[in-house]
Every structure is written in structure tokens, then in C-alpha cells.
Design a protein that fits this description.
Elements: E1 6-11, H1 15-28, E2 33-36, H2 42-47, E3 50-54, H3 58-61, E4 69-72, H4 78-84, E5 90-92, H5 97-115, H6 118-126, E6 142-146, H7 150-159, E7 165-169, E8 179-182, H8 184-192, E9 197-200, H9 214-217, E10 224-228, H10 237-245, E11 249-254, E12 274-276, H11 286-303
Parallel strand pairs: 1-2, 1-3, 3-4, 4-5, 6-7, 6-9, 7-8, 9-10, 10-11, 11-12
Helix pairs in contact: 1-11, 5-7
The protein binds NADP nicotinamide-adenine-dinucleotide phosphate.
NADP nicotinamide-adenine-dinucleotide phosphate is lined by residues 75-76, 78, 147-152, 170-172, 201-205, 207-208, 229-231, 255-256, 279, 281-282, 316.
């Protein structure tokens, strides 16, 4: 039980986005005072043991000497973990069924885009070509999901009813009915050999950085395609370009990049085998997210229980 009644919102984002979050969080926590960090005195900061954050400046976090934990409003906290370095501060990330459902919808949408040859038909249209391409039923296609956590499992549950064979790869095996699971590097290579569409939903950690390289891309069957909804640095960009240039990889749908926004002159913008999305596959829903954060903050302030945290050693 703590006497804290002010909950700061700490973000390096533009003022407009900060006030939208403060409004949504205040509505979800009417018994407390939600306040943007910029309006908080140093004395008030020292009374706070919990804060709600969205890409906070680590130096600003240091002005809260008694902070025990922070709740990020984002599902991916790779940047925060990396910027904070070794720390005693506990980090709680967003786990929201609404977000998982939005991501699952995006995975299904872009899987169907690739499955039904939309990039090729778009290209034919531009050239005025009337040609029906061979149709391969979903039952004859395998979608491999890299990372089988909150988002990967929700995606699998959306893909299975459409008829796709679904494979998954993660550190620990999972038992989701209808999904064939693979573990370890050898397991990954074995899985890739069968994947017509590979969906990356891994977090960016020291172990996943550059994971998808030339060696692994070469394991994929001919005409395979890639969807990256995890984080940009998981894919070796030079190896991706080589695989696309020689047609080894048929198409890549990319939502996340090493640098965001993607620089204007970047080769990916104009590559005929690339579809660019501006990190939009699963935006956080402020209303559902605010309720989830509110319940956890309230529970902590009443019972002193910190929710389950990110493992900063593992990075996710
Ligand atoms: N594009 C977007 O709009 C968007 C939105 C939200 C999130 N994301 C990204 O999606 C990522 C995943 O989110 P989530 O909620 O599903 O995370 P999660 O629940 O923590 O799941 C992560 C999964 O990745 C696996 N994994 C991690 N490191 C691995 C490794 N080295 N080898 C094999 N498997 C590994 C984990 O396996 P174990 O559990 O077995 O260790 C787990 O299955 C986030 O970190 C974020 O980067 C993107």
C-alpha cells in the first residue's frame, strides 16, 4: 500500500499525443491525478513509485529517485530496455488482447495479399497485362511464424481457419492445436524449408538482431515471401536485398525498419519486390490500453503488487 496519488505520464512524444494519453489514462483512473511529467515538480517526482511511460527519455526517468516500476503503453519495449541498460527499475509492457487481435488481423490481411499474388497483379495492371496466375489453395501453403508469444499465437489462431498450415518457432515449445512447433537453430532451418510465407513477430534482442540472414533466407523454398512485423534489425538488410534482387525471395512486406521513418532515399521504397508500411500493423488502442494500465496501477497502489515484468536480461 502506498500513499502516491499522482501518476506521471513520461513521454518524449509530441505534446498532442501526450495529452491524448493523459486524457485516456485520467478517464480510466478517475481516483488519481494523471499528469504529464513536464508539469511535475522535483518534490512531487520524489514521491512517485510508479509511472506510465511511452518512449521516455532515460534522463527524465532519473529525476524520479524512488521509482519502483514503469508501465509502458507499448507492447515492444526493446528501445527502453536498451536505453536504460542495467537497471533495478522494473519494466511492465502492454499486453492487450485488442492489440493482439489487431496484429492477428494484419498478419491475415498481408498473408492473403501475398497468397493471392496481389503484388504481381498490381504490377501486371501497371503494364496493362491480362494474365491469370496459377491458383494454389491455402491448404497447400505453409505460414511460418517466428516468435510465438502474445502476438504470434493470436496470428496463428487467425490463420488456421483460413486453411493455411501454420508452423511456429520460439525458444520454448508451445502446444497450440493445429500448429507445428520448432525450436533451436536446426529446428528453424527445418521449418524454413517448408514456409511459403514467413512472418516475423520476434522482439529485437541481442539474440535476434540480424537473425534472418543469407543462410536462413536460402533455406526458404522458391517464391517464398516475408512479412516483418517484429523489428527492423532482426532482418539482415543487405542479405534481404540480395535475396530480393535475385528473385530468391519473391516479396517482402515490411512494417518495421532499422531507421523510422524510413529515409526518403532508402532502396526499399522503390524496390519492386517490397511493400512498405509505416509501422502501422498493430497500433495501440488508447482506450483499451488505458484500462489495462489503470487496473495494474490501481492494484499496485492498493496491494503493493508489481505486475509481471519484462526480463531485462533477455530483453523481452
Ligand atoms: N509492428 C507493430 O506495430 C508491432 C506492435 C506490437 C509489437 N510489435 C513487436 O512484436 C514483438 C513481439 O510481441 P509479443 O507481445 O508477441 O511478445 P512476447 O509475448 O514476449 O513473445 C515473444 C516471442 O518471441 C520468442 N523469442 C524471443 N527471443 C527468441 C529467440 N532468440 N529465439 C526464439 N524465439 C524467441 C519468445 O519465445 P519464448 O517465450 O519461448 O522465450 C516468444 O514466443 C514485440 O517485441 C515488438 O517488437 C510490433
Amino acid at each position: 500500500m502506498t500513499t502516491q496519488n499522482i501518476v506521471p505520464f513520461i513521454s518524449a512524444a509530441a505534446q498532442e499525443s501526450t495529452s491524448e494519453w493523459v486524457t485516456a489514462l485520467q478517464e480510466a483512473l478517475p481516483e488519481l491525478t494523471l499528469i504529464s511529467v513536464t508539469q511535475l515538480s522535483l518534490a512531487d517526482r520524489s514521491r512517485c513509485t510508479v509511472a506510465i511511460v511511452a518512449n521516455p527519455d532515460p534522463d527524465v526517468l532519473k529525476t524520479f529517485p524512488n521509482l519502483v516500476w514503469v508501465h509502458s503503453v507499448w507492447a515492444g519495449v526493446e528501445r527502453l530496455v536498451a536505453e536504460l541498460g542495467p537497471t533495478k527499475l522494473k519494466i511492465v509492457r502492454m499486453v492487450d488482447p485488442a492489440l493482439a487481435s489487431t496484429m492477428a488481423e494484419a498478419v491475415l490481411a498481408w498473408t492473403l495479399y501475398l497468397h493471392r499474388d496481389m503484388p504481381a497483379y498490381r504490377c501486371q495492371q501497371r503494364r496493362g497485362v491480362w494474365r491469370q496466375r496459377a491458383y494454389v489453395p491455402a491448404q497447400e501453403k505453409t505460414v511460418g511464424i517466428l516468435g510465438f508469444g502474445e502476438l504470434g499465437q493470436a496470428a496463428a489462431q487467425r490463420l488456421l481457419p483460413s486453411g493455411f498450415n501454420v508452423f511456429a518457432w520460439s525458444t520454448t515449445p508451445s502446444m497450440l492445436e493445429g500448429v507445428t512447433h520448432f525450436c533451436g537453430r536446426d529446428g528453424l532451418k527445418q521449418m524454413l524449408k517448408k514456409c511459403n510465407i514467413l512472418v516475423c513477430l520476434l522482439p529485437h534482442t541481442p539474440k535476434t538482431a540480424g537473425l534472418i540472414d543469407a543462410e536462413l533466407l536460402a533455406c526458404l523454398p522458391d517464391s517464398a515471401a516475408l512479412i516483418n512485423f517484429g523489428r527492423g534489425p532482426i532482418i539482415n538488410e543487405r542479405d534481404l536485398r540480395d535475396a530480393l534482387d535475385c528473385g530468391r525471395l519473391d516479396h517482402a512486406v515490411l512494417d518495421v525498419f532499422n531507421i523510422e521513418p524510413l529515409p526518403e532515399a532508402h532502396w526499399e521504397w522503390n524496390h519492386p519486390r517490397v511493400t512498405i508500411l509505416p509501422h502501422c500493423s498493430a497500433p495501440t488502442n488508447k482506450q483499451t490500453a488505458a484500462k489495462i494500465v489503470a487496473d495494474r496501477v490501481r492494484h499496485y497502489l492498493m496491494e503493493g503488487v508489481v505486475p509481471s515484468c519484462v526480463d531485462v536480461q533477455k530483453g523481452y
